[in-house]
Amino acid sequence: MAQQSRRQFIGLGTSTLAGALVPGPVKSLFGPPAAACTVHLDQPLGDIAPTIYGQFIEHLGRAIYGGIYDEPSRTFRPDVLAKVQALRPTLLRYPGGTVTKIYHWKDGVGANRPVRKNLIWGGNDNNHVGTDEFMRYAELAGAAPFLTVNMSTGTAEEAADWVEYCNGTDTYYATQRQANGHAQPYQVKYWGLGNEEAAQEDAGTLQDPRDYIKKAWYYAKLMKLQDPTIQLIIAGDKEDWNQQVLQALHPICDYLSLHLYASSKPGEPASLFASIAEMEASIKRTAAQIKALTPAKVENFSKWYRFPSRQQPIRIAIDEWGIWENGGKGAYGLEVDYTWNHALGVACFLNIFQRNAAAIGLATWAQTVNVLAPIMTNETTSICQTIYYPLELYRRLCGTRSVAVTTTGADALDVAASTSADGKTLTLAIVNRESQAVALRLNTKIAGRWTAHELTAPSLAAMNTLQAPTTNVVRYQQRTLPAGTTSYPCAGHSITLLQAQLP
């Protein structure tokens, strides 16, 4: 998690909205403006990695204590856990974020856990939630664990010991894990080599990419010698940094991290969509840089490393993404109230991930509870914010292969298309960013029925609040359209997933 002064916001300077090809308007004589979309099933854009639907928790404010964990009872909050489980995260990142730079994993295992000052975010951490508790939570949530190691105030040996603790069988730290109640290895696959190491404001001395490269090689060697099957995420930053770390580390890294947060201009909710469109441009630039600088396959990797090189092309790990608005509450103003406008933005993000499926290997929304979060709590209850609902809907319904789709006639629409693993179901994800309804003509060969899953809200400013925990401003409607339907009326400010069986 980056500090506010240096977080990588998406620029607000463009009015071009990605994902729509607009050669000219589609005329409508009556009713709402009309548009048309054409699905190109013969133009696959890539397999959608299930790990793009991840979440992130950090030792920051009320994200863990008072969020997923109830300190007085020393248990996970059941109301929050139920909401996290319904969100279907495929991946869970921990312990940070920026706090990784002062986090020592050995403080958080066993019976005697020291209280440490959180040098990054303030306050004290009693380490009641550590590795074993996190692993249990990831298991309960149905998510694969993703750990980031301390490259700033830690050591390579400490990181390798963590791999041994999590993935080993008969050695010293593996037997400690067994003594702490988990006989079988956790088999943690994803390991981040630090977090935002280029940031000068943070603890650590790796702001020069040459220093990061030297240290990352050492960490990678010791960690992979513990478990050669792990996959490594290296810290990304600006293009010059990325160029140097990719050229030096590409034989052993599987992912390059990209942290992106969108925001809106005060009083201009629509500016959020321009900010999000720039996110897609940044993804494309990073993907092009990876392709230009790294071979798809590593050749002539010395056997004397005693572990294999990466086995697949490098992909982007968007291991922090979200919407970061000013004016929030709590630590560093990070407890943000999300409106329906933000929910529309989340759906646009997810469409971007589908369109760029070939480049993106994983993504984790930052974060999960209370901090820039889809779930908010107080001492007695919890709520789902508006952004929760598109996250849940896409995870539940979208397909596993992205296919090309072109949309003409309406700048307001953002559309992505996917097909199921068996190739039998098509899903169109449609976001109408404007208040006016749009009649969307469906240029497909589908003669059967469509099922529409639609999310709307009373206004762009509508939000769910802890003051009215039983009131949900988000309206969900599911309906079946008649066979032979060739158009769909997209309500103003709506998110719709249309599904049909392919011929």
Keywords:
503 residues, alpha/beta, Immunoglobulin-like, TIM Barrel, eight-stranded parallel barrel, disordered N terminus
Briefly characterize the structure.
By secondary structure, the chain is an alpha/beta fold. The chain has nine helices and 23 strands. The strands form five sheets. It has a nine-stranded mixed sheet, covered by helices on one side.
What does this structure look like?
- The chain is of the alpha/beta class and 503 residues long.
- The protein has two domains: 34-45 and 402-501, Golgi alpha-mannosidase II (Immunoglobulin-like), CATH 2.60.40.1180; 49-397, TIM Barrel.
- The chain contains nine helices and 23 strands.
Question: Number of DSSP strands?
Answer: 23
Mean pLDDT: 93
Q: Share of helix among residues?
A: 10-25%
Number of helices: 9
Q: In angstroms, what separates the terminal alpha carbons? A: 46 Å
CATH architecture of the largest domain: Alpha-Beta Barrel
Taken together, the total number of domains comes to: 2
Q: Based on helices, strands and strand pairing, what is the structural class?
A: alpha/beta
* CATH fold call of the largest domain: TIM Barrel
Q: Name the CATH superfamily classification of the largest domain.
A: Glycosidases
